[in-house]
Amino acid sequence: MEENGQKLRIALGSASSQKVGYLWEVLAEIGIKAEVIPKEVKSGVSEQPLCEAETKKGAINRAKEALRQTPEADFGLGIEVGYYLNKEGKYEMFCCASIVDKNSLVQSCFSSRFLLPPFHQRILRQGKYLGEFVREYKREINEPVTNYVRELVRGRKPLISEATRNVLLVYLEDRN
Questions:
Q1: What is the CA radius of gyration of the chain?
Q2: Is residue 77 helix, strand or coil?
Q3: Angstrom distance (rounded) from CA 166 to CA 176
Q4: First to last CA, the chain
Q5: Domains of the chain, with CATH numbers?
Q6: Which residues contact 144 (CB under 8 A, 6 or more apart)?
Q7: Strands 75-85, 6-12: parallel, antiparallel or unpaired by DSSP?
Q8: What is the pLDDT of residues 117-166, one digit of tens each?
Q9: I need a labelling partner for 143 at 20 to 30 A (CA). Which of 2, 11, 81, 98 fits?
């Protein structure tokens, strides 16, 4: 996809090499040629959002601030991972990705949710920051499912990629 014969310019509200990499993978998967301009921005929410509304607000804040810092961009993209307490009182991890463009249009999409294992549930219930403990999860076990869960919670790739892909598709399709 190109805008007026030029590459799309995306101001990403994160300087995380992980999130930049996931965005590049999603762009390649969809077939979008773009320039990604990573910006270190604040989410304006807690470091570990514990509800949908706060997570969405963090994604929108990141997108708005990235666009503000990058006036040459076509839009800002914010990615925020959060946690949701379900009806059974258990935490699920998810991602919200938001786009804010120059016309102040805001588009947000959520990923599916992943029910965290008991190890992670305990950390969140204790009010501790999950990121400090993700490498500890069953680290002595080398088994495919455990390895996948460990990497999913640590890298959050499936959730970030899903939300990012969805918001890009919805936003860009609306413009065609």
A1: 17
A2: strand
A3: 16
A4: 10
A5: 2-113+157-174 (3.90.950.10)
A6: none
A7: parallel
A8: 998 999 999 988 887 777 777 777 778 988 888 888 888 999 999 999 99
A9: 81
Q: What would the two tokens of residue 136 be?
A: 């500890």
The two tokens of residue 115 are 């029910």
Long-range contacts of 156-161 (CB under 8 A, 24+ apart): 156/81, 156/93, 156/95, 157/18, 157/22, 158/111, 158/114, 159/81, 159/93, 159/94, 159/95, 159/111, 159/112, 159/114, 160/19, 160/22, 160/79, 160/81, 160/95, 160/97, 160/111, 161/22, 161/25, 161/26
**DSSP letter assigned to residue 93:** E
Is the Cα torsion angle 2, 33, 35, 94 positive or negative in sign?
positive
Nearest to 78 by CA among 88, 57, 63: 63
